[in-house]
Amino acid sequence: MEHHAETTFRHSYSKDRRQLLNRIKRIEGQARGIQRLVEDEAYCLDILQQVEALTAAADQVAMLLIEDHVNGCLVHAVETGQGEPYVAEMMTVVRRGLGRPTRRRTTG
Q: Are 91 and 103 in contact (CB under 8 A)?
């Protein structure tokens, strides 16, 4: 996909917006289900299983957003000469998501 003007570029996840919203709504439902389990004093491991399922669902949303960002926003940034700050920003977010420290910039 070719982008000719900055004003015509949309966030890359726009094409997957419906899928993202559906997944997020399912996550919302899972969170409410976990809340009910806690309110009903369900077995600890049953709750933990549901938390793991919610985490996996959130990870799927994150992966879809990462893929869309790389294939759209990042590609667009590179094509328009803005790649370096976008790559740095992307890596900061990925490192934070993985629980890794951000890299320090070296001078010189």
A: yes
Give the Cα separation of 68 and 75 in Å (integer): 10
* Neighbour tally for 100: CB within 10 Å: 10
- For the chain, what percentages of helix, strand and coil (3-state, to nearest 5) are there? 75, 0, 25
Q: Which amino acid is at 41?
A: E
* Tens digit of each residue's pLDDT (9 = 90 or more) over 51-72: 999 999 999 999 999 999 999 9
Number of Cβ within 10 Å of residue 48's Cβ equals 12
Q: Note the pTM of the prediction, 2 decimals.
A: 0.76
Whether the CB-CB separation of 10 and 55 falls below 8 Å is answered with: no
